[in-house]
Amino acid sequence: MITSFIICIALCQIVGGLGAIVTTPEINGWYASLNKPAFNPPNWIFGPVWTTLFTVMGISLWLTLRTDKSNPARKTAVTAFAVQLLLNSVWSFLFFKLHSPLAALIEIILLWLAILFWILKTYPVSKVGSLINIPYLAWVSFAGLLNFWIWKLNV
Predict the structure, then answer these.
(1) In Å, what is the CA distance from 48 to each residue of 12, 13, 29, 53?
(2) Residue 28 gets which letter from DSSP?
(3) How far is CA 89 from CA 10, 37, 42, 127, 152, in A?
(4) Residues of 120-149 as b/e, b for ≥16 C-beta within 10 angstroms?
(5) Fold assignment, 2-153
(6) How confident is the model at residue 1 (pLDDT cuts 50, 70, 90)?
(7) Angle in degrees, CA 9, 13, 14, rounded to 5
(8) In a 3-state reduction of DSSP, which class is residue 130?
(9) What's the pLDDT tens digit per position in 73-92?
């Protein structure tokens, strides 16, 4: 049981780490040159927030996987998890690697919808596993707003 717990969290942290590999080199260069809205948080806040959120995602996956394998809703919830995790990793590439706030904005809307779908599909399988992702949805809502204003201020 502890092994599967560690694997679920490690999977999410690896995805987060891949995003950080793309993001970090751009922080003091391209990203620093962008016009940002007044509500843009300091750069140091993103690492701890995302590390926490990826940990919570891993816990949610673990709680979902612990449920009855014969429950068809379990498979849907796990698939929805995988889709949102993939979309999460794509955002960093679009925004930071391709320097495309517009493409990232379009993608973060899809990510937001995928997170909401995941939360809704996980709820019947694991209420706790579902509800612990509400802060993730809230953070991506904020990130989407921030993404919008960065795009708007830099076109």
Answers:
(1) 14, 12, 21, 9
(2) I
(3) 15, 24, 21, 25, 23
(4) ebbbebbeebbebbeebbebbeebbebbbb
(5) Ferritin (1.20.1260)
(6) confident
(7) 115
(8) helix
(9) 999 999 999 999 999 999 99
pLDDT reading at 154 higher than 90: yes
| Average pLDDT of every residue of the chain | 97
Average pLDDT over residues 14-38: 97
What confidence tens digit (pLDDT) does each residue in 87-118 have? 999 999 999 999 999 999 999 999 999 999 99
Packing angle between helix 72-92 and helix 2-26, nearest 10 degrees? Answer: 20
The rounded distance, in Å, linking the Cα atoms of 65 and 62 is 5
Any idea where the domains of the chain sit in the sequence? Answer: 2-153
Q: Give CA separation, 113 vs 57, 81, 97, 120, 141, in Å.
A: 16, 12, 23, 11, 10
How many degrees, rounded to 5, is the angle at CA 110 between CA 33 and CA 71? 140
Tokens of 105: 């904005």
